[in-house]
Amino acid sequence: MNSNTFLRHDFFSCSRWLKETASGLFPVIEDHRIRVTSGTLHIKNALISDGSKYQCIITNGIGDKRTDTVLIVTAPLRVTVIPEHQTLNIGETAVLNCSVNGHPVHTVTWRKDQRHLAANSRVQLLSRDVLHITSVRREDKGMYQCFVYNDVDGAQGTAEIRIGGNVLNVE
Question: What residues pair up with 82 in beta bridges, in sequence order?
Fold first, then answer.
C-alpha cells in the first residue's frame, strides 16, 4: 500500500500515543514507518495490521486527558473463483472457491447466471467462500459469480460449470 497516515489531536499536542490490541492498550512503538513528531503520529505506508483504535494522551499541569481515534486501513478487493472452468458429468459434485484478496470483507454473495443463488439440499454454502453442489444436473451449467463488498469497494469473480455427456451412475 502506498499511503501515509497522520493522526493528531486538533487542539493540544499528544504527549503519548497508545495502540489498542487484543491484549490491551500499549505504547506505540516507533520504527522506520512509524514516528511521533510534535505529538502527531505518522504512519508511513500503512499496513492492514496498523488498523486499530489509537489513544492520544494529552498532559498538562492539571492532569491527563485521553482521546480516541480509529484508523481503518483498506486494501482494494480482488476476487478469483477457483476453478474458473470445470466440466462435470451429471451426478458429480462441483466445488467453487471464492478466493478474496483485500481488506476488509463485509459481505460475500453468490449468483448463477446473474440471478440470486438459493441454497437447497444440493446447493450449499460450506462457508461464505465455498459453494458446494452435489449430484450435478444439467440445469446447474452456467456462470457462477462471487461478489465481495465492503464500505468502499466491491469486486467479483466468475467461474463456469459445463456439463459433459456422460451420466454418473449413482446407486
Answer: 97
Give the angle subtended at the CA of 20 by the CAs of 17 and 21, to the nearest 5°: 135
Q: Average pLDDT, stretch 124-148?
A: 96
Going by C-alpha positions, the residue among 56, 52, 43 that lies closest to residue 17 is 56
The CB density around residue 20, as the number of other CB atoms within 10 Å, is 14
Is the pTM for the entire model greater than 0.70? yes
Q: Are 157 and 111 in contact (CB under 8 A)?
A: no
Q: Check: CB of residue 158 under 8 Å from CB of residue 142.
A: no
Determine the Cα–Cα distance for residues 65 and 73; give it in Å rounded to an integer.
26
Q: Please give the Cα distance from 73 to 48 (Å, whole number).
A: 5
What digits encode the pLDDT tens for the residues 46-83? Answer: 999 999 999 999 887 788 888 999 998 989 999 999 99
Binning pLDDT at 50, 70 and 90, where does residue 105 land? very high
- The DSSP H or E segment spanning 24 is strand 24-27
Which residues are within 8 A (CB) of 120 and not within 5 positions of it... i.e. 6 or more apart? Answer: none
- Cell 513528531 appears where? 37
